[in-house]
Amino acid sequence: MSVGLSHFLTIGAVVFSLGLFCVITRRNAIGVLMGVELILNSANINFLAFSHFSSGTIDGHLFALFCIVLAALECAVALAIVLAVFRNFDKVIDMEQLTTLHK
Amino acid sequence: MEHAAFQQFVYLFWIPFFPLLGAVYNGLLGSALQRRLGEKWIHAPAIVFPMLSFIITIAGFVKLTGLDPHSRALYCNAWSWLHIGNLNVDIAFWMDPLGAVMAFVVTFVGTLIHIYSIGYMRNDPGYWRFFSYMNLFMFSMLILVLGDNFLMMFIGWEGVGLCSYLLIGFWYKDEKNAVAGMKAFIVNRVGDFGFIIGVFLLFWGLGFSLETFDSSSLATVTSEETHLNSSLVIREIEESLQIESVHEAFTGKKIFGFSLVTLICVCLFVGAMGKSAQIPLYVWLPDAMAGPTPVSALIHAATMVTAGVYMVARLHFLFALSPFAMTWVALFGAVTALYAATIGFFQYDIKKVLAYSTISQLGYMFIGVGVGAFSTGIFHLMTHAFFKGCLFLSAGSIIIGCHHQQDMRKMGGLKTYMPVTRWAYLMACFAIAGFPFFSGFFSKDEILWQAFNSKDMMLPGGGKIIWLLGIVGALCTSFYMFRSYFMTFTGEYSENPHHVPKESPKQMTCVLVILGFLSIFSGFVGMPHLWHVHNLFETWMEPVFESSSSLIASEGYTHTLEWMLMGISVAVAIIGAWVAGWLYKNRENPLPGKLLASKKQIIRIPYNLIYNKYYVDEIYQHTIVWLIMNLRLALDWFDRKIIDQLVDFAGTAGRWLGRFAGYTDEKGVDGAVNATSDMVIFSGLKLVTIQTGKLRNYLGVVLAGAIILVIANYLFF
Lengths: 103, 717
What we know:
The structure holds 2 protein chains of 2 kinds.
Chain A: H1 5-25, H2 29-55, H3 59-88
Helix pairs in contact in A: 1-2, 2-3
Chain B: E1 7-8, H1 14-37, H2 40-65, E2 74-84, E3 87-95, H3 97-120, H4 127-146, H5 150-168, H6 175-211, H7 234-242, H8 244-252, E4 254-255, E5 258-259, H9 260-275, H10 284-287, H11 293-302, H12 307-314, H13 316-319, H14 323-343, H15 350-370, H16 374-401, H17 419-433, H18 439-453, H19 463-489, H20 506-521, H21 536-541, H22 546-549, H23 559-584, H24 591-597, H25 601-611, H26 616-687, H27 695-716
Parallel strand pairs in B: 1-2
Antiparallel strand pairs in B: 2-3, 4-5
């Protein structure tokens, strides 16, 4: 059995599902961010897989690189928001309790 | 006659407009001037303006005498007034011999009476108002006599009616005077209605007749080209009727079986009846004596009331076409002459006696113009203006002298206290009674002779009936005038021996003297042909009445008969005066008192009948006035019960409709609007619950959506 496109897509889908599950179930904001990282990476896997198996160009790689950069940026901003929330909402970062943008 | 032939006389326009200036001056400034500067500032301009008119009239007179008798007319077109289609009406004045005589009488007597009024109206709070109205009257009257078309005439006609109303009710604080003013105005309205209907008919009938005019005959009458449209200019109407075919079409026209000419003349004469106080529209004139005496003299004796006579004379060419209308005019005149004279028998108010005498004398003028003796009618108008003006002003002088007493029973013996007034009154009495060589003799006798001689009267006996009525009227006239003289001036002044009457101031007596002289001498301008002298007045008037002279026929009685009739006239005058003297002189004869106290029916009934003026006012009160008053009630009922109900119904219906519309609005339209908003609010409230702010909810929805999409993709595509 040779490893083909469907294997990669399956891996991507599993990682996406795990990420989504993580985002929905986690109560800690940091955990939610980690779920988001997983979703982004599942998308990167799909980019690379399609790039490798169907087009043969480096467009997919390029998008994957962009996504990694974006993920880093997103991570930085999101952590800053979490830190601000932590300060302003009496050290609470529970997603169940954080339903409004102000106290 | 054509336009070019008229002598232009631009100052003609000023004859009526000077008095208007006076009226405006006193009307605007009089009240203040009287308070601040005194009465002199009121009456000086008020007299100067009519005097200027008089001077211009004399100038016009002189100018007229210098012209050829057949184109003797002055013309002044002040400005254009109406130009509608073919109808041209200008503010234009036209003075022919007839207009000149009228203007002369109006300005001359008018000016004198203005002077007299200075004395009579002294210290009256409404002094300025009086002179303003008097000047306005002069303006209107001069417009009436000098206007060259029917519209101008009508303005004057209504204007004098207005001034008459204003001056009768001059002392309006007394309700009786105000009512008398209204009565005069309303009775005149009846006449004016006839007048204007007559003018309409004439205009229409003439237009109709001109359509039949054959234009091929134009060659002979090219100058008439401009008159081919119906016109309101009196002179143009006269000219149009000279054209043979127009004349035929006009006289041949009938409506509802009546000859159009007759109908026009009768309508116009109804107007004359109202203005000139003829039966049955005379009732306003005795009541009009409520006004100040100079007003009675000027308006209700000398000038305004003669407007009807003037109008008939001015339209001689129309009246002459209809023997029926002429008979009608003469008969009404004769009946009025006798009828009013009999009422004069038992009047005790000196002004009432003179009022009935005026009605009676106007009757004589109508006899004159009715039998086709137009110039004689106007001649009597002129002499009457002098002697009746004199009588009225003397009466005014007496009234002032006797401290506003008008009842002749409370006078008597005034000849020692008021000699000038007495002589003036006596001379005027001689004139009105028709004593030989006094002015009234010449004019009245000529009228009666012409009536006797007339062939046109459509009556059994022709003009003799008219003559008979006239001569009996003359007897009555002589009686009641001398009765008034003897009652007033002879005997003893009985009323108040400590407060005797005194002669009036100079302004009044000098006017009396002038008019007294004219009462005596003015007749000499129109002496009868019988005496083989030149009749100046008739010669002067002749060109005016030329066109109708061929239509008037006379019996051609001999001179002997004329002498006899003249003798009868003189005899009745003397008999009347003698009887009056026998009964009333010095109040010595007990007979009048006895007769009045008598209980015998044969005396009571006629006395009551005449004393109460034949109950005519009462008859009017119980017929026409009653009818109108009841009609008013009926109309009031109709208004209340029918019109008001309809209006109320409309209102109610409107209210119900409004209520229904309101209901619809409230429940329907508002409901829909509210429902929409309610729905939005409701859905908003429901939808707000899904925004929990919880991330997992949102993501759950996203996931569910994605799953649905994936499944739908598999199922449907």
